[in-house]
Q: What sequence folds into this?
DNA sequence: TCCTGGCACTCGACTCTAGCGAGTGCCAGT
DNA sequence: ACTGGCACTCGCTAGAGTCGAGTGCCAGGA
């Protein structure tokens, strides 16, 4: 059975009112606040149908209705238009991000901005290494048997790792090594480097070889195995808004989930290019976040995706605004990084 | 009026019981659980005195007593011995920190370890730049007018900044610049570099000079002005332990405070070498943390201090254990970094 | 066929009262 | 100086009563 237009309008009204007031909404209130053109009794009948279909539910008999996850889903998919940002918000984004001096700074400012604008928990992934390319590799001798490998990628990220060599190595050899790896690897995307690193080892012979083998191991580790994804988080204090009404009293599982980088990456990491992803309540794979909704997207210059960002909040959130804000911030950050 | 031994014993018992049970403790319970050798009535008299002196208070007439901040202070200063760690804890520390591959890894593991052992919010400052010394400076050309400055310090931290040159610069000049700054600055403590940087500028003449001036500005900024302190945080979920009893229901101000790096630095930054600092409730300078206690200390190899670390929890915390754990972790991390 | 006004009913939220009991302060006695 | 006894306080809990928002259903009307 499909829902007619009025029923959809009723659902929309319920979602909007509930998001605004945070209280179950009844038929009378509804006709008062929205011009539905029908009587409360009619609305009640519609509500009964909506409830049967699983879009809304009653917290207890004889209280108003509350949207279910399914109701929010329908609302997001078919009943809402993305709200355009206010000029003030637009200005806030620019003001906040102008003047960032390095990548760390950009990411930190972004995550705080997002938390502030949406009044929710914001998550921003650093540009993913796998999708970046090598700009420069530096080898700094620490002692005769130890090097520090510093890798600079085109998004501005810098990774370092200690290399324990199998034996002492003269300074000149370090210079040779540096030149070799730079020649072969600079400019390539990190996802494409593993075979090149292998080729590099095969090419080298003589006394440099053992050092190169060790170095290549560390390189591969840095590039691929330990996927060095980094994440910034802000706005956890926003979880306490609305008292204990959201999240039925226990912030615990949510805070726990937000501390796991792996979990966060899962939340905002697997993004289809430039698409918004909205996960409502039970749709989340992570059990601890079944009481929340996650709005996320990828960012990057043009169609390239460097990383993900998004917000986590109560299922009872203002989806149109949140989606608009997340999208706008993602676009802005993407462009900003493109200027690099 | 000074307190006799029994009154102190009573205070100690009250603190211990309250920390354990989280409930106001009455005279009867007290004599049952601790061998005080006197009757409840006597204890009541002692309690009356302790209350008059401001060490304990009654939540309401005819409930048990609860320690005040002042009571905890006396307890920490004079009534408790630092509890030695259990072998299990000691093992946990080693197991957790062995196998850290780089500085980031060390800090992350440390902060999680600390949060887990104390079951509170843990804060760890990255080794302070000011107290480290330069190991290597690298200049990577990004374009003809842009360089990336990468500074590696002896604690393993790596900082990068973009340098916008006043005009194009040939590759050879970059090499000269690199050599110059490395010659002069490698090995010096960052706190001592500003005059050296100045001297460097004065020494250079010719076409290199404008580039060197810009570079020196960025260097000084990185070294001093933007004090690039970094902080890691973990265990915020522990704030929700004990339901809403601690922090009288509102985590908000605490979460807000913990999101401010400046605030965190103030908390654990200004440490006297190897001394433990305990701030109880109202003793905290930060208003949002007046309901919490902070246990912190510095860490570093030997007597050198590289940074601070500590935990934030309810005033009602197990001070002896917490202090022991914080101290042990600080020592261990200090030694670990010394091996670098 | 669809909508509406009316009506009886449900049930959570709030208020009020009474009783319980842990805990206290005080006092007289040892 | 300590103790046992006693009257008192007051938060907590349980139960009863009331209120009212909101519902489902039904009969009548467009």
A:
């Amino acid at each position: 059975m499909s829902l007619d237009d009025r029923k959809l309008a009723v659902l929309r009204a319920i979602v909007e009112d509930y998001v605004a007031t945070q209280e179950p909404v009844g038929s009378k209130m509804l006709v008062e606040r929205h011009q539905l053109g029908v009587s409360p009794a009619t609305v009640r009948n519609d509500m009964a149908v909506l409830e049967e279909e699983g879009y809304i539910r009653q917290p207890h008999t004889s209280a108003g209705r509350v949207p279910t996850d399914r109701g929010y889903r329908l609302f997001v998919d078919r009943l809402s238009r993305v709200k355009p940002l206010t000029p003030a918000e637009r200005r806030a984004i620019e003001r906040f991000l102008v003047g960032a001096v390095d990548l760390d700074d950009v990411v930190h400012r972004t995550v705080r901005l997002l938390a502030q604008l949406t009044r929710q928990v914001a998550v921003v992934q650093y540009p993913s290494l796998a999708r970046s390319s090598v700009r420069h590799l530096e080898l700094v001798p620490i002692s005769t048997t130890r090097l520090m490998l510093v890798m600079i990628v085109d998004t501005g990220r810098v990774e370092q790792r200690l290399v324990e060599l199998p034996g002492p190595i003269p300074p000149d050899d370090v210079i040779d090594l540096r030149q070799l790896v730079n020649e072969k690897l600079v400019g390539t995307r990190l996802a494409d480097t593993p075979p090149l690193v292998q080729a590099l080892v095969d090419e080298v012979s003589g006394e440099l070889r053992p050092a190169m083998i060790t170095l290549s191991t560390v390189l591969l580790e840095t590039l691929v195995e330990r996927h060095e994804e980094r994440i910034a988080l802000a706005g956890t204090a926003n979880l306490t808004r609305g008292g204990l009404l959201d999240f039925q009293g226990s912030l615990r599982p949510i805070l726990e989930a937000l501390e796991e980088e792996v979990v966060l990456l899962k939340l905002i990491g697997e993004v289809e290019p430039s698409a918004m992803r909205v996960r409502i309540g039970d749709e989340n794979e992570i059990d601890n976040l079944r009481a929340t909704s996650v709005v996320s997207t990828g960012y990057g210059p043009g169609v390239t995706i460097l990383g993900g960002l998004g917000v986590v909040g109560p299922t009872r959130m203002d989806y149109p605004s949140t989606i608009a804000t997340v999208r706008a911030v993602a676009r802005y950050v993407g462009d900003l990084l493109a200027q690099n």
